[in-house]
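Q: Hi! Curious about what Sulfatase looks like structurally. Here's the sequence.
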Amino acid sequence: MYKHFSLLAAGALLTASLSAQNTPQPYQAVVGKTLADSKEWWPTPVKPKPGSPNVVLILLDDVGYSATHTFGGVINTPTFDSLAANGLRYTNFHTTAICAPTRAALLTGRNHHYVHEGGFSHTAMSAGFPGWDGRIPDDKGTIAQILKANGYNTFAVGKYGVTPDEEATDAGPFDHWPSGKGFEHFFGFLGSETDQYKPDLVEENAHVIPDGRHLSDQLTDKAIAYIGRQKKAAPDKPFFLYYAPAATHSPHQVDTFWSNKYKGKFDQGWDWYRTTVFANQQKLGVIPANAKLPERNPAIPAWSSLPPGQQKLYARFMEVYAGYLEYTDYEVSRVVNYLKEINQLDNTLIYVIIGDNGGSKEGTIHGQIRGKSTGFANAAVTDSAYLALNENGEAQIGTPASWTNYPLGWSQAANTPFKDWKMDANSEGGTHNPLIVFYPKGITDKGGIRTQYSHVIDILPTTLEFLGIAPPAEIHGIKQDTLQGTSLVYSFNDARAPSRHTTQYYYIFGARAIYHDGWKAAAAHRPDYRDFSRFKDGPALPARDWDKDEWELYNLNDDPTERVNLAKKYPEKLAALKALFDAEATKNHVYPLIDFDDVLHQRIHQHYVK
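A: Let's find out. The predicted structure is below.
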């Protein structure tokens, strides 16, 4: 009886161990015809090194560089302030300029086209090419898969964003769901955006009915529950938590307790915000000393030119946004405080990436209130009619009845000191985001600022080096491709260490750039904001000629906010960088060049213009 029980237990242990390891241990038993002739063997269970830290990776959505108080903004973010004051602020960190590519690159430590996420996993915005099909391959494993195989429990809550639409039903297949990519528990949503009170909610591998509370509240409760259950069962076992709230992506929805805290705080407008915050950033040292504030984008009207009614309307949009961001900081504080309560905070490596791209441009010039598809549904109306819709619905801004996004002027303000915004992979305003790294036991320069050039693909190799884990040769028997990111551990306690990430390409919806050793060549490919009024008359827009895109050249060491185009002054430098972009694009499967913005415009035109 006891021998039978032992064999059953051994079988269970063997199954668990093999599923947890990247490369199964060679079988070492001796199997004879009888038990007396045999020698038993069990594989050694995978265990992290004693004292291995927990890892919490926090990724916010659609937050500009200067929105948080932590990086010079006027929106209260005391949790981020505290983590930064006891950790490090990375001021030269970059994303891909839009959500799904950033998330795919973050999870895999590889460039987004290289892991097939050139655009989105949405059916309408993927394409049948190696860099564009929206399906992360199995030979490019995730941080969750690697840490799980090294003895960590793995949880994810919030926005996932890299599951193909056609696989996102309860019938699966689940290979590209969080459970198929190494997460043992998941609670959140699979798409790019969702209503905060009526989310398209998923738990584990099935859609569930939300309980009516704000999504961020539910996500935090679930994250704390995952940690609590795990620590109760295995106090010494570390965990990995990927905490990715929908905030602050549209819809901006938050209780008035939070938004009303900012009543009147933005009445002076977006021009005041930019100059005020720029001065704050200079004092904090989160922008280079030689940075200069670019001129307001010509698409944005001067605040002083707006009539009082518009100023009042637009200020309310920003009050709601500010409340939404402060509320998000509060929800993060609940996780941080729980870790402190259970004596885990000092042994937890925390990353806070404040935005997967720059501030959103989807709110258009006038902001957006009503309906999920307001921007598209009103594509053929005049500016005055569109503005009237927003003015009449002002009381709904931020409520569960609205689908709110702020006007473009506030997005540029939230991106101070940079030009442009989300989707503009050619511009720092699309790709330059704050990063906080917190680990009390391992970071001695508390409150330090790091200026090394870095990118979202660097997070996974940083984590592995810090934990002493080698990149796996195989995951579940599948040989793994090379990581492309550069570990940042070298800079943790050396502020003056030269950057090791020296080359990085960017490409989103036709906008593209190449960075190399402080220089940057970049080309825009489409308008710098979505002018939906273009679709009210005339034929559909023709495809844009790629060869006519104008490349610009910047020396970011001297001009970090991209004010002075040096393309004509240094044509040979520009030519060399364009050649480098071509090499990187070829290596990373960027080609063929695809502008899904043109595809969407064609579809909008076909739908609304008869």
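A: A fun detail: The first strand starts at residue 54 and ends at 59.
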